[in-house]
C-alpha cells in the first residue's frame, strides 16, 4: 500500500499547481522576484485556506469528504482567489499574473461545478491542467505532464479515493482547462 501513495503525494495539486505557475510565469519573462512574490501570494491566499477548509471538514482529509463538503472548499478557494486577483489588479501586477490568476479562478469554478455532480479527481486534473497549459509556451512539458498523469490516476484508483471514471473525468477536465489557459 506504500508505493500507491507515492504518485499522489509527489505530484499532489499543492505541489503541481505552484510549480506550474512558476514555469508559466518564467516563460512569460517575469523576473524571479516577481515570480516568487506572486506564486507565494496565491499559495498563501488561495491554496492554504482551501486546504485548511477541506481538512477541517473531513476526518481523513480532502479525498474522503463528501461532495457537499468539498463545495465549501471550492467556495473558500474561489473567493480567496478572486480577492487576491482584485488586489493584484489594483496594485498593477504584471499582466501575466492577472491573466493566469483569472484563469485559475475560472478553472476552479469549473472544477467546483463538476465536483457538485461527480467527485472528479483533482490530483489527475491538476497534472493534466499543467500539461495543457504548457502547450503554447513549454510544449516539451505537455507530453511529460500527460505521462505523469497515468501513475497519478492509477494511484487515486488504487488508494480507493476515486473510480476510474472520476480519474478520467478529472484528467479530461484538467486538460481542457489547461489548453484554454495556454491560449490566454
What features would you describe in this structure?
The chain has 184 residues and is mainly α. It has one domain (12-182). 80% of the residues lie in helices and 0% in strands. The chain contains eight helices and no strands. Helix 2 (13-27) runs antiparallel to helix 3 (32-57), helix 5 packs antiparallel against helix 8 (164-182) and helix 6 packs parallel to helix 8 (164-182). Mean pLDDT is 84; it is low at 56-62.
Write the layout of secondary structure elements.
Layout: H1 2-10, H2 13-27, H3 32-57, H4 67-90, H5 95-117, H6 122-133, H7 139-158, H8 164-182
Helix pairs in contact: 1-7, 2-3, 2-6, 3-4, 4-5, 5-8, 6-7, 6-8, 7-8
| H and E string | HHHHHHHH
Cα Rg: 16 Å
Query: Structural class per helix/strand content?
Result: mainly alpha
- Give the number of helices: 8
Strand fraction? under 5%
Largest sheet: none
Count of distinct strands: 0
Total domain count: 1
Low-confidence stretches: 56-62
Mean pLDDT: 84
Percent helix: over 70%
Report how far apart the termini are: 41 Å
Which geometry do the CA atoms define?
Answer: globular
Amino acid at each position: 500500500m506504500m508505493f500507491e501513495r507515492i504518485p499522489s503525494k509527489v505530484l499532489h495539486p499543492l505541489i503541481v499547481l505552484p510549480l506550474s505557475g512558476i514555469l508559466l510565469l518564467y516563460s512569460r519573462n517575469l523576473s524571479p522576484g516577481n515570480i516568487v512574490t506572486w506564486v507565494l501570494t496565491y499559495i498563501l491566499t488561495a491554496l492554504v485556506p482551501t486546504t485548511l477548509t477541506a481538512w477541517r471538514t473531513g476526518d481523513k482529509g480532502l479525498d474522503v469528504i463528501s461532495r457537499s463538503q468539498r463545495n465549501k472548499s471550492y467556495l473558500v478557494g474561489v473567493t480567496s482567489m478572486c480577492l487576491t486577483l482584485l488586489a493584484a489588479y489594483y496594485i498593477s501586477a504584471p499582466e501575466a499574473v492577472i491573466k493566469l490568476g483569472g484563469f485559475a479562478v475560472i478553472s476552479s469554478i469549473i472544477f467546483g461545478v463538476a465536483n457538485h455532480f461527480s467527485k472528479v479527481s483533482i490530483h489527475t486534473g491538476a497534472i493534466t491542467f499543467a500539461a495543457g497549459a504548457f502547450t503554447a509556451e513549454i510544449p516539451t512539458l505537455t507530453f511529460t505532464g500527460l505521462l505523469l498523469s497515468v501513475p497519478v490516476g492509477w494511484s487515486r484508483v488504487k488508494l480507493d479515493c476515486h473510480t476510474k471514471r472520476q480519474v478520467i473525468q478529472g484528467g479530461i477536465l484538467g486538460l481542457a482547462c489547461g489548453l484554454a489557459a495556454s491560449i490566454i
